[in-house]
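Encode chain A's predicted structure.
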Amino acid sequence: MKITKYFIAAVAALATLTACDSDLEKVVYNPEQAQPGQLVASESDIRLTAANTKQEVLTLTWGASEYGIDLAPTYTIEMDMAEGNFSNPVVLASTTENTVTIKGKDLNSAVLKLEQQYYDNAPIYEPQDVKIRVVSSFSEDVESIYTNLANLTVTPYAGKVEYAKLSVPGSHQGWDPSNYDQALYATDSNNPNVYTGYVYMAAGTEWKIADGEKGQAESNDKWSINWGSPDGVTLVPGGDNIFASEEGCYYITADIENLTLSVEKRDWFIIGDAVGGWDEANDVPMAWSSEAKALVAQVDLADGEFKFRVNHGWDINLGLDPDGEEFDLAQNGGNIKALPGLYYVTLSFADGYPTYSIVSELGGGIQWLNIPGTMNGWDPATQDNVLLATSKTTFTGNIYLTTADEFKFALGSWDDNWGSDDLTTLVAGGSNIKVDADGMYTITADIDALTVAFAAHGWSIVGSAVAGDTSWGTDYDLTWNAETKVLEITCELEAGEFKFRADHDWGLNYGGEPDNLQKDGANIAVEEAGTYHITLDLQTAAKHQAPTFTITKQ
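Encoded structure for chain A:
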């Protein structure tokens, strides 16, 4: 059946209602006269690799589609397997031009997506015969027209598939099931109902697992598909909130078919001769950065190599992925080469792929604020006493100060320095700073708002191991050792547990492992009674950012 549609070419003429019938009849679209352009592909056999992922590997050109009237159609470039019928094609691009160039990573992703459709969600990395067409359209009311097919053979590589994902809403991210900043991913094509991923949570966090996208699509309710757990092992649709007892990076495995859950706390470290050696003593702890949405450590790298590992062991370790893109990581991968210098090293698990970066600045900001003074010979580039960046202009850290000390803040030289007369307001090039009492100070400085805050804390140990006080009400105070620059105590302890706390109060306390203390962390065990020497190192430096402790039986 012949279909004739009328289109007004001159909108202004219609608006003024001055066009006559004969004028309208001049603008007629007859679909039988429409002619698509001729599609030509620059290549017919493409082998994709990590090396050409960012390069342009394919150029497609086609003549303008002719409609018999003056139109500017939209061209959509579709791709399907050679045996397909374009019922569910992958869209490579959309444009109003008559040519597009496709980068390796985009073509690779498209082929892998087709493989998932055709091969039961299990991509293979062998040559695939595909076909491409250009769809020309200019109105929803008019059928599209299609170019000829361009037939290609494309060999994909083990690039990045867009994995199915579940969100982890909770008190750590505002209970938002549509927030996938930290998510679980179905990365195993043989187990499409098993989702895994890393989520960083503070102590006391409550959380669940949800499919916010599917829930929104099916019922317009982001919470309609969610799981909880009464015991941390069994998943229950719509079940109880799950509780994180201590701060840390958790590896979560959720099987939404068999309704099982596994939650494992994993502490990540950087290890290698680039950070001093390959033994446990040189493990550099990584901390979560909400700004980078990754684990971060600020380290002074030497000429050497490094890797990432979990809990001081090699069972779980990440190195360079030989089959991946630049900065991709893989279990038991190769060593990472480092250039000497002071850097932020990040470890990210975004989109289900572990990746790393080495950058001199985090989020475009400054690495740290130096504290030159009488304590270090007034060296404005000191790395022994620093405040670490928490944003582009704010810094915080710990340092022990006495009333005899004088100091300032600086950005690596005397060109940018700040002083203060009142311990509250920063003044560019201002007076030397002095504190009113000896103590371990937590300092927060904002060089944009020109404010500074000093909080002096007295530190102690408390717990059932301290005087056998099971009520956790007895404190043994730590004292400052100016030579070793640590807080310390030698005392009698009972078999039991203890923690470190400030000012005999639980508002600020530390527990956990000797080389990675955490705020509100786990109790520290004392296996047997005896005399112990305990040190607490809070002093912030370029090479020492997280609090650490030692405990030695005398």
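The mean pLDDT is 87.
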